[in-house]
Amino acid sequence: MGFVAAKCTQCGANIEVDDTKEAGICKFCGTAFVTEKAINNYNTYVTNNNNFAGANINVIGANIDNLIVLAKNAQEVGNYDEAKDYYSKVLELQPTNCDALVGKGISALYSSNLGDIKSDELIGYISKAIEYKKKEENISKQDLNQFIVESAKALYQAATVVFQVSKTHYDEYWKLENSAPEYWNRLGKVVKIFIYVVSLTESDNIRQSEEGKFCYLEGMKFIVICCVEICKQRQYVSGIVNPGQILESEVKSEIKPNASLHQTYMELYDKMCEKIKEVEEDYQPDSINRNKEIQGGCYIATSVYGSYDCPQVWTLRRFRDYTLDESWYGRAFIKYYYAISPTFVKWFGDTKWFKRFWKSKLDKIVSNLNKKGVEDTCYHDKY
Q1: Which of 78, 212, 277, 382 has a CA between 20 and 30 Å from the CA of residue 331?
Q2: Measured between alpha carbons, how far is 146 from 57 in angstroms, rounded to an integer?
Q3: 288 burial level (CB within 10 Å; 0-12, 13-18, 19+)
Q4: Cβ-contact 46, 27 below 8 angstroms
């Protein structure tokens, strides 16, 4: 048995074949080939490469077309690792192939996992593709703009998928202490992609097309959604090591982004809302949690009534979220309350006089709120 050099007649990959057998399977594309034809294909390529520069270009061109088709086929069936490999082979033959650069970036993102989202790789490849496209000879402004719009669409679609997968994962695993910080980190990468989408489509020329305008506007709206998600105060269950674990008594602890991160996304939220309203005047975004100092539930009320989840505290939490939080002085009160109440509870929360003193006052407040229509049914915090 002897192995000789050959070239797959389907994908153009360099392979070694057993010349004693009539046929074989390409290890790169999985396509069957006739051994004699694969060997002849290689010999033809080498001959043309050595003697005819023009013929070499034609052979390479055919190989690139085949590889692009194979890469797109792999993408369509969700095999992004294979697609990425094919696009890499194209770039080995033609490093400035813009379609392959975009395809490799998209495939890199989709083949990554939540622990290592390849957002930088995605942006890097598409940025390089646009750079090369601008340098192409005789490319019209219209064709260039269309390529940028198509790239922005691919980025937008990829970012929305990562957002949905990240949110679904968090909703399932929220009880774990590290789930919220990991979720914020993933959304930060999603925001980075959407910011790049907005930067690609913000020029008037790009936004003349419906698709360009869509990517620009909806990209900013998704940034707003991510900012709201990141600034929410969240909970986890102390002592849980896996989401399926059941404890006799689940103690919920509060967790929030640090002040610097919170401030960054509040500012980005405000900036995006302002830009959106320049295009869509009646835009109404979801409100964002602006209270960077908020630490947890209704501390004094929880101490008095013995639970964060009981009718009296549900009433007070609704009043906090939908009355106090709607005005600047109400938000100031909330901030002041959460600044001092943890200390009071820490010092006096277990004493009888403290609970008697506050219970009489809170009972009256809760009763008045109920009479005014504030419900005391089960409630999930607004933020």
Answers
A1: 277
A2: 27
A3: buried
A4: no
Q: Which helix (H) or strand (E) holds 191?
A: helix 179-201
- 63 touches 79 (CB < 8 A): no
C-alpha distances out from residue 84 to 8, 93, 139, 159, Å:
19, 15, 27, 18
Q: Which residues on neighbouring strands pair with residue 254, listed in sequence order?
A: 235
Q: How many CB atoms lie within 10 A of CB 163?
A: 21
Q: Which of 226, 223, 301 is nearest to 257 (CA)?
A: 226
CB-based contacts of 297, cutoff 8 Å, min separation 6: 254, 308, 313, 317
Q: Which residues contact 209 (CB under 8 A, 6 or more apart)?
A: 145, 146, 149
User: How far separated are the first and last CA of the chain, in Å rounded?
Assistant: 71
CA distance 39 to 55: 18
Three-state DSSP class for 165?
A: helix
Phi, psi (deg, nearest 5) at residue 81: -65, -45
Query: What are the Cα distances from residue 242, in Å, to 166, 175, 237, 256?
Result: 18, 8, 10, 21
CA distance 9 to 15: 11
Boundaries of every domain in the chain: 140-292, 296-383
The Cβ of residue 200 has, within 10 Å, a number of other Cβ atoms equal to: 23
* pLDDT tens digits along 265-305: 989 999 999 999 999 999 998 888 876 443 445 678 877 77
Low-confidence ranges of the chain (pLDDT < 70): 1-2, 11-12, 28-30, 43-62, 241, 243-251, 291-298, 307-309, 381-383
Spatial separation of the C-alpha atoms in residues 368 and 14, rounded to whole Å: 81
Cβ neighbours of residue 81 closer than 8 Å, sequence gap 6 or more: 107, 111
Q: How far is CA 350 from the centre of its chain?
A: 44
Q: Give the integer Cα–Cα distance in Å for 331 and 56.
A: 71
Query: Would you say 292 and 336 are in contact if contact means Cβ atoms under 8 Å apart?
Result: no
